[in-house]
Amino acid sequence: MKILIDADACPVTDITIQIAKEKEIEVRIFCDTSHIINSDYAEVFVVSQGADAVDFALLNQTEKNDIVVTQDYGVAAMVLGKEAHPIHQNGRWYTNENIDQMLFERHVLKKERRKSSKIHGKGIKKRTLEDDLKFEESFKNLIEKFK
């Protein structure tokens, strides 16, 4: 088992690395050239900018039973296809039972946004300590379940 992080705009990279280090699990971080990420523990893969370049680099290194931290539902679906275990930055586990519904909801919202330029979400709410603690607990549980 290793942990792969889709690190472009990922707010839980440091938490993920800290827990992985405690559990002595290998970590690989993937980002594009517009981000600067350094780690004394994880291996960092910097991929050239381009549509889905980071996603494909991450997926190419994902193997059965790996854990992948991503907020991208499409990446999560492909990770599940590799029999690995994706987790969202909010701590929600992507599973074969919930991924279709999540992809469908994303599709519907995207379709609605295209129909009307007046539809705007409230944006992303500021991350809280509670959000981090929720992710941390869920992430530790995921490791324990599949280690």
Automatic annotation (TrEMBL):
InterPro entries documented for this protein: UPF0178 (IPR003791)
Record's protein name: UPF0178 protein DWV06_04525
NCBIfam families, sorted: PRK00124.1 (NF001095)
Lineage: Bacteria, Bacillati, Bacillota, Clostridia, Lachnospirales
PANTHER family, A to Z: UPF0178 PROTEIN YAII
Species of provenance: Anaerosacchariphilus polymeriproducens
Entry's family note: Belongs to the UPF0178 family.
